[in-house]
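Backbone-to-sequence.
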């Protein structure tokens, strides 16, 4: 770890970082409480019916009446951020400094299992043939579905589309429509990190807070801005995205989301099984500290070196297990 990273102090949260990536996970858990806000028309769907993913949930933690909300599935969040993380660290490291497998690492069928993305987000071996070493790397980043603060009927909008004749430049009959989430819709969510190093924590936050395109048809829409509202460390997951959403739906959350998130984290820390190991921090303070650290070549290459060390240790463990 370089001196600049060492110089940044995350306070009591520091004790939840691990010194290196181990073969065995620890109980060290860090949760990031985020608000994902759409800044353009955005499509969150998984089916070809062109309908948004929706779910019926209570209106809030204090109001059990049903409300239909738009769902931003965990897979749609992880896929975007996993690819963005790989792009960031590979660009910072410089492809000329990486081996062939690391340069060609890509989702989903060409994972190198030797880079920062693979050892953090997980990787499944796709190699075939007898005598080849095969192992899977378990993820240390966990996502869950994010639910809209606003009701579905307030933030959904149908937009028709048609084709333009390249010769006459005239439009014919509308070809169809898409159902979109309107701009300024809010999705509180929680991302859980397990057994991460300080470098991984910083790089992952830089990835999430710089990632902007989500959903379908991102070539023309899908701008989303992520805000870090709070961070909580512990020996367990303190809060789920559903709990966070139902608490955030209560009146006054959007007027001061950081302070309200602190109140919510304190409330749920009372339910923790290991209350002596809970640390709560403001998201804006963490964001400012992370901004100070450049994701440069030395930072990225240090992460690659740690990933290679982990991969070599895993390979050695696999050989011993086969004896």
């Amino acid at each position: 770890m370089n001196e600049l990273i060492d110089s940044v102090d995350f306070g009591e949260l520091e004790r939840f970082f691990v010194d290196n990536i181990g073969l065995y996970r620890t109980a060290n858990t860090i949760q990031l409480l985020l608000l994902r806000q759409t800044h353009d028309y955005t499509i969150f769907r998984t089916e070809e019916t062109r309908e948004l993913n929706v779910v019926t949930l209570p209106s809030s933690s204090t109001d059990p009446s049903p409300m239909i909300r738009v769902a931003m599935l965990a897979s749609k969040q992880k896929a975007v951020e996993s690819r963005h993380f790989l792009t960031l660290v590979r660009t910072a490291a410089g492809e000329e400094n990486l081996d062939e497998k690391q340069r060609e690492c890509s989702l989903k069928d060409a994972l190198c299992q030797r880079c920062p993305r693979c050892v953090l987000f997980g990787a499944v071996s796709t190699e075939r043939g007898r005598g080849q070493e095969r192992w899977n790397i378990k993820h240390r980043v966990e996502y869950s579905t994010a639910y809209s603060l606003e009701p579905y009927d307030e933030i959904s909008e149908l937009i028709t589309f048609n084709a333009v004749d390249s010769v006459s430049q005239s439009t014919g009959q509308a070809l169809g429509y898409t159902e979109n989430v309107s701009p300024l819709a809010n999705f509180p969510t929680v991302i859980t990190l397990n057994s991460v190093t300080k470098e991984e924590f910083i790089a992952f936050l830089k990835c999430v807070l710089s990632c902007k395109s989500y959903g379908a048809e991102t070539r023309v829409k899908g701008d989303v801005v992520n805000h870090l509202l709070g961070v909580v460390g512990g020996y367990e997951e303190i809060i789920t995205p559903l709990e966070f959403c139902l608490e955030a739906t209560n009146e006054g959350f959007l007027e001061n989301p950081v302070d309200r998130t602190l109140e919510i984290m304190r409330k749920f820390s009372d339910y923790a099984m290991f209350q002596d190991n809970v640390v709560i921090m403001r998201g804006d303070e963490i964001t400012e500290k992370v901004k100070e650290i450049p994701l440069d070549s030395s930072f990225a290459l240090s992460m690659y070196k740690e990933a290679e060390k982990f991969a070599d240790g895993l390979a050695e463990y696999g050989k011993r297990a086969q004896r």
